[in-house]
Amino acid sequence: MADIRFMDATQDDVNAVTDCIRAAYSKARETIDDLPDVTGGLAQDIADHRVILALGNDELVGVIIFAQQGDVMKVINLAVSPAAQGQGVAGKLLSRAEADARDAGCTHMELRTHRLMQDTRAIYAHLGWVETELAGNSVAMRKDL
Fold first, then answer.
1. What is the pLDDT of residues 44-86, one digit of tens each?
2. For residues 84 and 62, is the Cβ–Cβ distance under 8 A?
3. What is the pLDDT of residue 1?
4. Roughly how many angstroms between the first and final C-alpha of the chain, as a whole number?
5. Contact 100, 75 (CB under 8 A)
6. Which is it for the CA torsion 14, 16, 22, 25, positive or negative?
7. CB-based contact 75:51 (threshold 8 Å)
8. Percent of the chain having pLDDT more than 70?
9. Fewest C-beta in 10 Å: which of 6, 7, 11, 107?
């Protein structure tokens, strides 16, 4: 996917963001029984946090939700539509969040993912994230800036 255009989400994007996240997590939902609902509260997320959409050919192909907490930028959710997976969209979205984190004076970024989402963990590791904690089915990861 050569050209990705970014834009901030608005309340008008809630349904499209919900569909994108639901599709991105659909394969994991088939095998992970305790995967939490990651589509609830998206309207509030858009109101309270930074939500960036990735558009390819004017179609929503990915989304990242993140928020600053002190000197840490926390990634709340990252999702890439199944049709765009493996094309670098996740890395581009994370780079956008990292740039915002640096501009805000953050020292590092943090996120949590599910222990059984091995592909997701591998992508983050490939992009320089380090696992810092494994508690139950939750894996904490960190990337220094």
1. 999 999 999 999 988 999 999 999 999 999 999 999 999 999 9
2. yes
3. 52
4. 26
5. no
6. negative
7. no
8. 99
9. 11
Phi, psi angle pair for 75, to nearest 5°: -85, 120
Average pLDDT of the residues in 40-47: 96
Q: What is the 3-state secondary structure (H, E, C) of 43-81?
A: HHHHHHCEEEEEEECCEEEEEEEEEEECCEEEEEEEEEC
